[in-house]
């Protein structure tokens, strides 16, 4: 295969700089020693990270986001694992329609989902509650949990299961001792990807969150609407750090290209 | 296999999918149906929502030029964003694909990683870069002599398109990347051995083969941009409304839920029609590639 010419490399450099610049600038400004938005040209300082401690609403929102992401991804898996096993193993009428339904939250704009859930949960008397947030997040992260579990279940070697059945294993034992360990890498990656999606969601959550159940993205968004100061950059830097950690874990355990390549054709 | 075992086998997939199916019907399909219903209800400043069946909201959207302008702006921004991601993302995917192993996976991570980083944080980055007339982008462009006076980026459609294109770019790169993986490098070599120059190879060999990837990437980018909320809300400010930010305002500021529901329903229906329509067109045009 031919190599890239100089023109291609110049384009590539420009492209990468533009892709990284906004993220880099947020992380740099977070370390400014000044009291206003500026690049840390006179040395680095952690003062804006310490300032976060004076804003309990950010810290509370962080814990809400963390709990919401962990819990909703887990609940989504409870529904997604059996569904994935059924879709991977059986050819039945309505299989394609079911798969399409389960992946549909990817195609429905989150603003529409936010409105639909707001209307639904308000009528059900759950408006603004943490329970409503969990249920809504289960729906939006479900496709990600399902997709990675499905990939693991489809690629699984079923002869091991047949061997276990011939040795007398059945039902729950078969699932717990044989099937689940075999698909576990896919399940854990599905959980991690689902967690990131939940942790980052703003558009849908902004409709559902009330004071007390505001997630970190919602808190940040509402804060930015009023004013932009170095405080939100230091909070953003922390969010980026959390996501990066999850990303690196995902890459180690599963391979980021596999996770993302699965995601690319979702909009269709 | 005995009849009983046969029957159990036939029922197994339904038993396994039943919980998820019930969840989706209960908390996805019913709320969506309720939203469509809501768009036909009446609303007044003092009486609140009245569950009657009227076309008032739809009539207002159809006749008030404010909504036509807002939907047209949403469409224009999504279209320009799609164009920008295709023009920059497709060549970049091609360049990436020609890199050697380690650089390739490194840059793939750098370019695709932002996909998983909070949209609020990424848009905040652009707000910092644009930041008024003394923003870094303007300073850079002026010192390079590209422009003589600062361009307003904040609270403009230009700024929205640039920031949105950045947010959506990974989807385009991924989609073209996937198409490039299916491409046989030997065809390029064959063309070269037959005397084709680089420009001819790109135009006659590469382009036709990655076009389905570009187009399916374009559909993803378009539908996500048309319904984007965070970026238009932060870069566009309070005045420059798109469909998603307008629906948000109706719901949480004006509290006219039925009207907001109508805007959201229209957005959903328009997007489904555009996405399904262009998918059909693409698959007909490139039937041989998808086979």
From TrEMBL, chain A:
RNA-binding in keyword set: no
State which residue ranges cross the membrane: 7-31, 58-85, 97-118, 130-153, 174-196, 231-250
**Official protein name in the record:** Putative spermidine/putrescine transport system permease protein
Q: Which UniProt keywords apply?
A: Cell inner membrane, Cell membrane, Membrane, Transmembrane, Transmembrane helix, Transport
Family, per entry: Belongs to the binding-protein-dependent transport system permease family.
Q: Where in the cell is it found?
A: Cell inner membrane; Cell membrane
> Which Pfam families is this protein grouped with?
BPD_transp_1
What GO terms in the biological process aspect are recorded for it?
Answer: transmembrane transport
Q: Does the keyword Cell membrane apply?
A: yes
Residue stretches making up the ABC transmembrane type-1 domain: 62-250
A GO cellular-component term linked to this record: plasma membrane
Native source species: Bradyrhizobium shewense
Q: How does it sit in the membrane?
A: Multi-pass membrane protein
Q: What is the lineage of its organism?
A: Bacteria, Pseudomonadati, Pseudomonadota, Alphaproteobacteria, Hyphomicrobiales
Which superkingdom?
Bacteria
From TrEMBL, chain B:
| Key word Membrane present | yes
- Please list every transmembrane segment annotated in the UniProt record, as residue ranges: 12-34, 75-94, 106-131, 151-180, 213-235, 255-282
From the UniProt annotation, give the residues forming the signal peptide. none
The places in or outside the cell where this protein is found are: Cell membrane
The UniProt record lists the ABC transmembrane type-1 domain at 71-278
Read off the SUPFAM superfamilies from this record: MetI-like
InterPro entries per UniProt = MetI-like, MetI-like_sf
Q: How does it sit in the membrane?
A: Multi-pass membrane protein
Q: Which keywords are on file for this protein?
A: Cell membrane, Membrane, Transmembrane, Transmembrane helix, Transport
By what name is this protein known? Putative spermidine/putrescine transport system permease protein
